[in-house]
Amino acid sequence: MATVRVTAGSTPLNGWTTGLTLPSGTAVTSTWNATAQGTTGPVSFTNVAYNGAVPAGGYIEFGFQGTGTGPTATPTCTAG
């Protein structure tokens, strides 16, 4: 299980996306407070209707649960 915090800098966010590439043998099985695209390999998470607007200096959190074993994945983040 992982909790991910998306933090706005000095500019508010109006929509966000974050992603990671899962190592072989791992998969996302459930997600909350975000919409997942993909379950293995490259997976991206985007805001849902109620948490896309993040005020300057604010944050939201979402989470996901997965299966498998492997090394730690490194997330990337973009906002728009």
TrEMBL record:
InterPro entries on file: CBD2 (IPR001919), CBM2/CBM3_carb-bd_dom_sf (IPR008965), CBM2_carb-bd_dom_sf (IPR012291)
Lineage: Bacteria, Bacillati, Actinomycetota, Actinomycetes, Micromonosporales
Protein name (Swiss-Prot/TrEMBL): CBM2 domain-containing protein
Domain CBM2, residue spans: 1-80
Species of provenance: Paractinoplanes ferrugineus
MF term (GO), any: polysaccharide binding
Domain of life: Bacteria
UniProt record, GO biological process: carbohydrate metabolic process
